[in-house]
Amino acid sequence: MKRLHASLTPLVWGMALAAIPAFGWDYKEEAREPVKHIFAAGATTLEVDNINGSVTVIGDGGNTMRVEGEKVIRAADRQELEQGKKEVTLDLNEKAGVAQVYVNGPFRRGSNRNNNEDPGFHQTGRRNYEVVYNLTIHVPRASALQLHSVNGAVKAEETTGKLDVRTVNGSVTLTNVGGAGKVETVNGKVTASFKQNPTAETWFKTVNGKIEATFQPNLAANLHVKTFNGEAYTDFETTAVANTAATVEQKDGRRVIRHRDARILKVGADGPDISFETLNGGIEIRKAH
Predict the structure, then answer these.
(1) Is the distance from CB of 208 to CB of 282 less than 8 angstroms?
(2) Average pLDDT in the 20-39 region?
(3) H or E stretch including 80?
(4) What is the pLDDT of residues 115-154, one digit of tens each?
């Protein structure tokens, strides 16, 4: 497998620090509530905006989006528990083909999800509780996905629609997907396997974590590979794009490609740009077998 060397300018750290969870309380009370909802048929985009908890999306042959999961409330005492139940809610909306699953609460800038401002994530006051939503959502396979969380893993499998998948503290895992788009975390690993290669521009990014991506053997793309503290490997045959010359050597029985100032490697014929960026971690770009 070839080794690819490149570097990444350090990213702004504020985005990671702003979302550190305010956990650590000695919670003595806990309550759990089931979550279940079926959106009407016809939604083509799923938008999930979670704060604490995991998000798993599974594509299937159905024609509706079905939400299942659990709301977990932990608090210092019974009064705080009841406050958490009341203040943090799961808003379920559908409009213009978009099914929204939105965790709302006092940490949001505004209470109305449908305004034009990014609601953001702001802890406006110390509360002696935490609320976690762990959600599993079944969708039609061709659904476009907008999956966002702050503290929790995000997963998608068996989907072919456009991808916008992000978390801050947690891993991102895509399994047997066929879409293109943005996949990003700050503290966590990014893993992706494609049953259909991306046909549009695609990004994979993390700050503290490894990126592993597996594509079909007929991949045609320009690979942009950047890592600061780590190494990058691929078992695809690549050629350097103009002005990104590489040197080739043998090491430990493997063909090693060192790219001092390289940024772009071409695989196959003309194809989309696929970017891989990490600060602290390696990158592996593999061929499916």
Answers:
(1) no
(2) 81
(3) helix 78-87
(4) 444 444 444 456 789 999 999 999 999 999 999 999 999 9
